[in-house]
Amino acid sequence: MSPVPRPADLDAVRDSYDRVADNYVDMVVTTGLGDVRTHPWLRAAMDTFADAVAGRGPVLDVGCGPGQVTAHLVERGVDASGMDLSPAMVAHARRLYPHCRFSVGSATELAVPDASLAGVLGWWSLFHLPRDVLPHVLVSFTRALAPGGRLILATHVGDGELERTECYGGVPVRWTTHLWRPEQLRDLLGRAGLHPEAELLLHPDERTGPGVVIVARAPGPAG
Ligand SMILES: C[S@@+](CC[C@H](N)C(=O)[O-])C[C@H]1O[C@@H](n2cnc3c(N)ncnc32)[C@H](O)[C@@H]1O
After folding, report:
1. What is the CATH number of domain 10-217?
2. How far apart are the C-alpha atoms of 8 and 178, rounded to whole Å?
3. 221 CA to centre of ligand 1 in angstroms
4. Residues 25-63: pLDDT tens digits?
5. 106 lines ligand 1 (CB under 6 A)
6. Handedness of CA 123, 37, 78, 49 (dihedral sign)
7. CB atoms within 10 A of CB 53
């Protein structure tokens, strides 16, 4: 299953995140939303992932946004770096966490050697990928993972698509959020050659809708 098709709306998604980047960073800093340290269950999932991948090789945070999760992993001894589609997000990440490594790129064009990563994240960053593109991206993640390496992803749960024309304080955007049911994701991960290992369901609250965190493991013994 290769190469990964380029999403027709990739440029629109990049431009949209460039426009919301300032407000997104402000939201993370002032409300704690998006910061795993403020959410005990997300933090537990991320810290368990960190324990599983620390000392085993590089870890790539795909769609890292302003880099707060990448930096959290680095603090926990993980050889993590971040990559994001939006140059404005990456500029914030470099400013906020100058000791960490960040690059601009797309999940659809993963530029890492095969079997080179101990871990990969798709942390609230894969839901804009069109339904027919996500399976290809997951296959590219499987290829990039070393034997026994782990993927952690978090995404919004539901059926269908949400079209947004403004977000994060009324900033104009143009993007689609593709909702997935956990069993659909488990099936996609299995087809991509990964073994789903653990799952955390997030019930809706006053700020966000339902979500899911899934951890999956690449075949083979951990290196
Ligand atoms: C909701 S933000 C989440 C950011 C960060 N992971 C966090 O937890 O705060 C979604 C991020 O995914 C990035 N993104 C969207 N599509 C992407 C793609 N195809 N490749 C890489 N990053 C992408 C956006 O630029 C944005 O920074």
Report:
1. 3.40.50.150
2. 14
3. 30
4. 999 988 888 889 999 999 999 999 999 999 999 999 999
5. yes
6. negative
7. 28
Provide the CA 7 distance to its chain's centre, in angstroms.
17
- Mutate-to-test residue for ligand 1 from 84, 110, 126, 129, highest number of ligand atoms within 8 A of CB: 84
* HSE-up (13 A, CA, CB side) for residue 128: 26
**Dihedral of alpha carbons 40, 46, 51, 55, sign:** negative
Measure 143 CA to ligand 1 centroid, in angstroms. Answer: 21
Ligand 1 atom nearest to CA at 125? 12
Phi and psi at 195, nearest 5°, equal -105, 110
Residue 80: helix, strand or coil by DSSP? strand
- Which of 138, 160, 58, 40 is CA-nearest to residue 100? 58
**Domain ranges (residues) in the chain:** 10-217
pTM comes to 0.97
Compute the radius of gyration of the chain from its Cα atoms.
Answer: 16
The H-or-E segment that residue 200 falls in is strand 195-202
